Amino acid sequence: MLKLYDYWRSSAAYRVRIGLNLKGLAYESVPVNIAPGKDEQFGASFRAKNAQMRVPALETEHGVLAQSLAILDWLNTTYPEPPFLPADPWAAAQARAFALAIAADIHPLNNLSVLTRLKLEFSVEDDHVNEWYRHWIRLGFAALEAQAAARPETAYAFGGAPSIADICLVPQMANARRYDTDLSPFPRLVAWDERARGHPAFAKAAPENQKDAVR
Q1: CATH number at residue 46
Q2: Are the C-beta atoms of 164 and 92 separated by less than 8 Å?
Q3: Could you tell me the pTM of the whole model?
Q4: How many helices (H) and strands (E) does the chain have?
């Protein structure tokens, strides 16, 4: 069975949970508490699994794979149905670009390790850290909303079924709400997020439904 090293609030791990659920794959969730002060990702046992010391990491029969987009790519190649990408090559490239705008542009600037360093190493106050977070969300979402507005309306980001774009969007939207970001300027993104969160695979993957969730 696949084994996912996971943290309930990690948006990168959230992506992989969605992907696994969409593919209908059984997996064992192994919580790794990456919260400041817990820092289980730096422990010897996890470091032996993933030298990058980050979640998610997926243990397979071939070994351990890190990085959420690499994991999703492997899942999509190994288990082709249902696909994470549109059939049309141009639409598939656009969906990848959408996902990368979140995973490579927005998310790294707002990663927990970055926010923690701002607070602990540079004494940035919580209010300013939160505004830092919202700034990068607004900037990234504005670009995605503008691109979305130029395309015909669809149920999901790139058609009638969830794609890699929705897999990346929903966790980032959850973080945006957590940091009280005004999402009213992004109606298309909000509509896609609401529809996707109603999908069973997305609902099952939600942070509050994980066994290590703090309630």
Answers
A1: 3.40.30.10
A2: no
A3: 0.96
A4: 10, 4
Distance between alpha carbon 51 and the CA centroid of its chain, in Å?
A: 20
3-state secondary structure of 176: helix
Domain of 75, in residue numbers: 2-82
Each residue's pLDDT tens digit in the chain (215 positions)?
999 999 999 999 999 999 999 999 999 999 999 999 899 999 999 999 999 999 999 999 999 999 999 999 999 999 999 999 999 999 999 999 999 999 999 999 998 899 999 999 999 999 999 999 999 999 999 999 999 999 999 999 999 999 999 999 999 999 999 999 999 999 999 999 999 999 999 999 999 999 999 87
**Surface-to-core class of residue 100, CB atoms within 10 Å of its CB (0-12 exposed, 13-18 middle, 19+ buried):** middle
The total domain count for the chain is 2
